[in-house]
# Entry
Amino acid sequence: MPQKLYIETVGCQMNVLDSELVVGSLRRQGFELTHEAEAADVILFNTCSVRQHAEDKIYSSLGRLRGHKKRHPDKIIGVLGCMAQKDQELIRRRAPHVDIICGTGQLARLPQLIDDAKATGKLQLALSLDRTESRHDVERSFESYDPMRDPSMRPTPFQAFVRVMIGCDKFCTYCIVPSVRGPEQSRHPEHIAREVAQLAGEGCKEITLLGQTVNSYKYDLGDGRRFRLSDLLTRIHDTSGIERIKFITNFPKDMTDDLLEAVRDLPKVCPYLHVPAQSGCNDVLRSMKRLYTVEFYKDMLARSREIVPDVAISSDFIVGFSGETEESFEKTCDLVRESAFKNSFIFKYSPRPGTKGHDLFADDVPEETKKRRNNDLLAIQTAVSLQDHLRFIGRRVEVLVEGLSKFGERTSHSGPRQLTGRTRTDHIAVFDGNPRLIGQTFEVEVTEASPFTLFGTVVSGEQVGLDNLGETWDKQRIALPLLAH
Ligand code: SAH
Ligand code: SF4
Ligand code: F3S
# Structure
């Protein structure tokens, strides 16, 4: 009987990728995935420490498993990732039934840790000791590890994340990431290119390059030449089979013209930039240590839009950071009103022990105020997003079909159903079509829009040859307007 594995993932795309790699390596050991924690022999949590809420969720899941572990002492429970890296003592205290605590840089050791935990019944710890852990070790660990992909764990079989760098050196004062993910290190461009080619060979059409500050990517080739993200995009661009290349997340200060020109000139690179501003007030940006001013950020937006026509830009904001006054917050509202972001992710400040923000500044904005500012900013962004989406009505957009929409999932007939996908500018589009279109790229004419979604109809069938789709496909339906929102 194969052993069963359950894995739960929270946090950013780095964690999604790490979980894919963990599953890939454990499948090679004969594990099978299950979606029920109680049915599994090994239960893993891949954790995030970026906000308190993310940690609370994991502790409550662990708490729920305490009785289960007592009844089945042979089951193995593991805590992986950022929280494991940061809080081994706390995890041991709050969840003494945990068998494995494995930090971010050590995931390749998991198969061995599981064996050791089973054999000894003792807690297995695997943590990177400090940020200065030898560069060589880390490099070796991700070169042997990242290529072990598992298509079934990807967001979809035809979309994949590729890590181009790890860690972060920026040390924004609110942020725990640099201390849990270690120093910034870029991967060798040829290793990345090989992984992209491998993924393309497995049927992958869309690649998203990942880095905490992906546009800070730089690799010294040793002969005086330095590879930048723009060079990397050029290097992987012609990989056959790859249709779309995206990259996240960008640091505003590093948005250089060579990168913007690469986005403009390389047809497979999507005109979409996620460039978090975090605040619209210079005093707050200074205490966050973001290294730019609002004026610089606005210039960067203008430059991006000038160089890359029709580029879509999204952002992140933190409300209620230490010292954020009503006046500072108003400046953030103004920035959001003016910036025409496609969307913004808005977070209430959560002080993280171990960061400068926590250790040096008071968390002086009351929770109620954080909540109100969060809602107010969200309302402003929602209005801006609606304007951004409305401008697509009557236009044709290219959509990579990702799967059934939420509505489509609730229907079960064999004809066209509601599908969802993304445009090259990362806008979500839903439309009716045969589920066989999933994984294909189509032109969709946009007929309606909400702040979060474009609604439309498929206008071209050439790319997949609709004639070959079989009898369940009712071509008449393709041109019908959409049913449900
Ligand atoms: N590396 C990326 C994202 C880091 S974490 C970047 O630099 O943009 C993702 C988002 O979480 C951040 O952009 C920020 O908006 C938010 N965030 C990070 N630390 C936070 C904290 N302590 N409290 C609330 N939000 C936080
Ligand atoms: Fe955190 Fe700042 Fe690094 Fe992003 S750039 S990961 S917000 S320290
Ligand atoms: Fe969270 Fe770690 Fe990502 S703290 S946001 S999972 S790098």
